[in-house]
Write a structure and sequence with these properties.
- This protein has about 375 residues and is α/β, with parallel strands linked by helices.
- Helices cover about 40% and strands about 15% of the residues.
- It has twelve helices and 13 strands.
- The strands form three sheets. A seven-stranded mixed beta sheet has the order 2-8-7-6-5-3-4, with helices on both faces.
- α4 links the parallel β3 (about 90) and β4.
- The longest helix is centred in the first third of the chain and has 20 residues, at about 35-55.
- The two termini are about 20 Å apart.
Length: about 375
């Protein structure tokens, strides 16, 4: 089997990740819920992971690193903290449903700053035109469908200039490219633990700069006599028992990516995307969504075939042992922007553990399938 669906979740992980998960399940209890050894081990593990994440993402205080269930959970916290019904909210043309659905559920006035694929200057112009009068802006760092790296630093600068709080979805960038919380000056940055950070499913991280509104209320192990949630982070946003075993695994995943030279994971994935694109570019009837310069593209390549619908091609690849994803990828806004909403795409997404040999085999397999279509 060749797994090329890293944009959905990482499957191959550092060996230390599952070992840490298993160890935590049998040796750790709940942090802040006792002074006995299992509780203290859990507290130390959660604190160590929080401090590691703070250093890796340049967050001034570890307390501003909040653990969530996933990026969707973090984005919901951020959106509910900043947005009220009727507020004008500007989003990019490449957002995931984890952004658009909470906004529409809140009754926000959503303005989509659409721009052409792989055109960062156009993305900046679209935000500049849409931001006046906005209460909040939300922008993905990288499109989960097309791998388009949006000019997040320039968009963040625009938001700071106009005094518009910014929420960044770093689901496809955290762990494979720089995300500097202090430099960006965003109000929130949300990310999953199970994608580029190579941790287990059921883990996520929310980096917080300002005021927050709890999405859940419950036990925190602190200030238990209060009728409401504590007014300090991270306790204010971490109601209930932590996913201690998941956080233990996440700690090992972050240690792995943090140990790699800056930019090396992205460069590796871009090389594999370029190789696949060079091969697929010769297949009759295939349309690729690809930045040939690779400057604006991450380790994701979406394509579609004239002769075979996307679901059928992905199913055939899966039957041949090549794991990819087809359809709308929970991001209809991105497909509307690019014009692929009706047919969807087949997405190949790479990880640090994929090889050139796997990439070439995937290309050859696709060629054979399309030849028989």
């Amino acid at each position: 089997m060749i797994y090329l669906d890293g944009a959905a979740t990482s499957l191959q992980k550092p060996r230390a990740v599952p070992i840490a998960v298993a160890r935590a399940m049998t040796t750790m209890a709940s942090p802040g819920r006792g002074c006995h050894l299992p509780a203290m081990k859990a507290a130390d593990t959660v604190l160590n992971c929080r401090e590691l994440l703070a250093g890796y993402f340049n967050v001034p205080e570890p307390e501003n690193v909040v653990f969530t269930f996933n990026a969707t959970h973090g984005l919901n916290i951020a959106i509910h903290s900043l947005v009220s019904p009727g507020d004008r909210v500007v989003i990019s043309g490449y957002e995931h449903n984890s952004v658009t659905r909470p906004l529409y559920a809140l009754g926000a006035d959503v303005v989509v700053a659409r721009s052409p694929l792989f055109d960062p200057d156009a993305a900046v112009r679209a935000f500049r035109a849409a931001l006046p009068g906005a209460k909040c802006a939300v922008c993905t760092h990288v499109s989960n469908v097309f791998g388009f790296i949006l000019p997040i630093a320039r968009i963040a600068a625009l938001c700071r200039e106009q005094g518009v709080p910014l929420i960044i979805d770093a689901s496809q960038s955290a762990g494979c490219m720089p995300v500097d919380f202090s430099a960006l000056g965003a109000s929130f940055i949300a990310m999953p633990g199970h994608k580029g950070l190579l941790g287990p499913q059921g883990t996520g991280v929310l980096l917080c700069a300002g005021d927050t509104k709890p999405l859940l209320s419950g036990g925190t192990g602190s200030n238990s006599a209060l009728p409401g949630m504590p007014d300090f982070l991270p306790d204010r946003l971490e109601a209930g028992t932590h996913n201690v075993s998941g956080i233990a695994g996440l700690y090992e995943g972050v240690k792995f990516v943090a140990s790699k030279p800056a930019g090396s994971i992205l460069a590796h994935e871009q090389t594999l995307v370029a190789t696949l694109a060079a091969k697929a570019g010769h297949f009759p009837g295939v349309t690729m969504f690809y930045d040939s310069s690779t400057r604006n593209q991450s380790g994701v390549l979406s394509l579609m075939s004239r002769d075979m619908d996307s679901d059928s091609l992905a199913e055939a690849l899966g039957a041949a042992g090549i794991c990819v994803r087809a359809g709308l990828h929970c991001a209809p806004t991105a497909h509307e922007t690019v014009g692929t909403l009706e047919r969807g795409t087949v997405r190949f997404s790479f990880s640090p553990f994929n090889s050139m040999a796997e990439t070439l085999r995937a290309a050859d397999t696709m060629k054979k399938i399309l030849a028989g279509a």
